[in-house]
Amino acid sequence: MEITLELIVFIVLALFTTVSALLAVTTHRILRAATYLLFVLFGTAGIYFQLNYSFLGAVQLLIYAGGITVLYVFSILLTSSEGDKAEDQKGYKLFVGLAATLFSLGVCLYVTLCHDFRPEHFVHGELHVSEIGHTLMSTAKYGYALPFEVISILLLACIVGGILIARKR
Length: 169
Hints:
mainly alpha, Four Helix Bundle (Hemerythrin (Met), subunit A)
């Protein structure tokens, strides 16, 4: 296997994303978890850009790293106290969490080891932005206009619910 700059950048991005994901799920402070989630989303966007999926990378940065993380932080600051910490998991919850983690790791290892992921099987690049836009805003069978509207209503309900919870205090 030849070591190239592309491989080195991928390894750095993968390690950055993995470490940030581990920190996001192991920290006891919820605001730090949201910050580590932001780093995970940045790392994922970097991998998209490395694969020449510039539209997907831009969407990852704008929608997820920008909008969704700001919504999480807004919700956390609006609904939680300053000293909120996660509870230590004990008993069956710890066992179920570890079992789910090991099962997920097994599935990932199975998929990775049993399938051929050679670079020549993948086509780099992306569709034209106009084609992506027409698909996203289409109301046809495989269009995304309805799911987009449903998600926007869900996010609006979450914001209103957060404000109502904050007003009760």
